[in-house]
Amino acid sequence: MSHYFIDTHREDIVNLKNINQTYDNGKVVVLKDFNLLIEDKPNQGQFVVILGASGCGKSTILRYISGLQKPTSGEVNLYGRKRIETDRVGMVFQKYSSLPWLTVLENVALGLYYQGVSKKEREEKAMDMIQKVGLKGHENKYAQYPTLSGGQLQRVAIARSLLASPRILLMDEPFGALDVNTRLSMQDMLLQIWYEVHPTIIFVTHDISEAVYLGDDIYIMRANPGQIVEHIYVDLPYRRDRFIKRTPRFEELVHYTEDLMVKVDAISAASKV
Ligand SMILES: Nc1ncnc2c1ncn2[C@@H]1O[C@H](COP(=O)(O)OP(=O)(O)OP(=O)(O)O)[C@@H](O)[C@H]1O
Ligand SMILES: [Mg+2]
Q1: Other CB atoms within 10 Å distance of the CB of residue 241
Q2: Domain count of the chain?
Q3: What are 230-269's pLDDT values in tens digits?
Q4: Cα(236)–Cα(250) distance, rounded to whole angstroms?
Q5: Cβ(31)–Cβ(226) under 8 Å?
Q6: Which of 60, 66, 69, 272 is the pocket-test mutation for ligand 1 (most atoms within 8 Å of CB)?
Q7: How far is the CA of 54 from the centre of ligand 1 (A)?
Q8: Which structural domain, as residue segments, surrounds residue 132?
Q9: E-strand spans in the chain?
């Protein structure tokens, strides 16, 4: 196990152990001895950010946790035991993942429907969330392109995953398709929900400033093969607002992370076959 993860005997939320992912009968090695341990922080949750070059295996890791894919070898453990089929985690995909045959309102309320919440209550809660993500007035439209724009569809998917209040929430470049203002307000909305519900969030992004703003722990992955090689503990206050981005410590952390990314990229490039 890599030295980045110190077992403090708190409950393990996610524990990926010695994962290998290969394709073409072992000729393509995507992940090798990959480890990731995320322990619960009671009444606080965890906000983990993963940074890494395109193709290093970030989405693959999220797919293991959500149960969409099984590794070639290695262990996928949730809540201190092997992952089971019925483990439900929230996931916002890199590409829009709204259900086009349902309206915006039905999409957002879907998690509550599965939880057996009454129609009236789930519609009230869904409308509240629709308002929060700035889609009021669109609730009765079908969640499909081009009726809704790409960024609007992504907000439908985000609203749906947040409203279901999962204990684990996986977010794969969720804000990549949004305009700058919407992206900033979605970051703050996500933080507010995190403070309220404190799920464990695993967030993939290519935006270093976003990583430092949102994350408590940032892990940087190398590629060829994919592995976590750097850990940054973000020593900013637990509660943040956008003005923190103007502090010297924030800027220092962004520069530090950027330098590590450059270093890790060089290591990955050197081992490319
Ligand atoms: N069936 C397959 N055969 C060979 N290689 C595959 C197969 N499926 C996935 N891969 C490779 O696995 C690697 C990891 O993919 P993944 O989608 O996890 O990357 P990522 O880190 O999420 O990249 P991005 O930042 O671009 O989203 C990629 O290099 C991809 O080419
Ligand atoms: Mg990806």
Answers
A1: 10
A2: 2
A3: 999 999 999 999 999 999 999 999 999 999 999 999 999 9
A4: 8
A5: yes
A6: 60
A7: 8
A8: 97-165
A9: 12-23, 28-39, 46-52, 73-78, 81-82, 90-92, 168-172, 200-204, 217-222, 227-233
Residue 109's Cβ-count burial label (10 Å; 0-12, 13-18, 19+) is buried
- What pLDDT shows up at residue 3? 55
pTM: 0.92
**2 found inside a domain:** no
Domain end point (choices 148, 165, 182): 165
Q: Which of 132, 147, 165 marks a domain boundary?
A: 165
Residues 113 and 188 in one domain: no
> Which of 56, 91, 175, 208, when mutated, tests ligand 1's pocket best, judged by the most ligand atoms within 8 Å of its CB?
56
217-222/200-204 β-pairing = unpaired
Token look-up 């403090």 returns 8
- CB burial class (10 A; 0-12, 13-18, 19+) of residue 26? exposed
pLDDT at position 29 over 50? yes
